[in-house]
What does this fold into?
Amino acid sequence: MPHSHRDDRNRGTLGTVLLTGACCVGALAYAAVVGPSMLPSPDVTTTHAALPEAGPQTEQTEKEERVEGPVGHLEVHVSDHGRAWVQTLSCTGDLEEDHSVCAALAEAAEELESEHSATEDDQEPQDEPEKAPEDDPQPLPENGAEALFTEVREGTVCTDNVYGPQEATITGVWEGQEVDTTLTRKGSCEEARWQRLSVLTDQLG
It folds into this structure.
């Protein structure tokens, strides 16, 4: 092989090696300059980690907006002009889901509590309260829910009018208190109780 031809081949091989090395150096330099800019920013990661979860807060807000009602289970036996029926009422405390009678009883209890508070405000304070005799009737409960089913106290002034032959017996538990009472329409005081609880004695739809 002629000498000149071998020198040309050597020069071509050397040129290829130099070109390959230059490309490698350029690639490394590009990676060193551009590579860090392609990494995710630490601020972005921190911001996403600090975002609060909306689910539990939304559920809590919905629970707080719900209006709480009374809780209880009552069984009512009613007799009216020879007819008789038995009906039950269950109140879970959720006025949106419970029967409308639950809300009506809650309103009646609030009215009783307001009347009791107004009566106490109208009474003049005494210097020294007198001790009541042991046979005196007990005062009405301050809690309207308890007073809702309280029977007429002995010694209460009432008329003897008879407003109807209807009678009813109510048993169960209401706001944690046991209930076992009888309603009639004999006398003005009993008639007042009957009207207050008529939502229970009327046939529930």
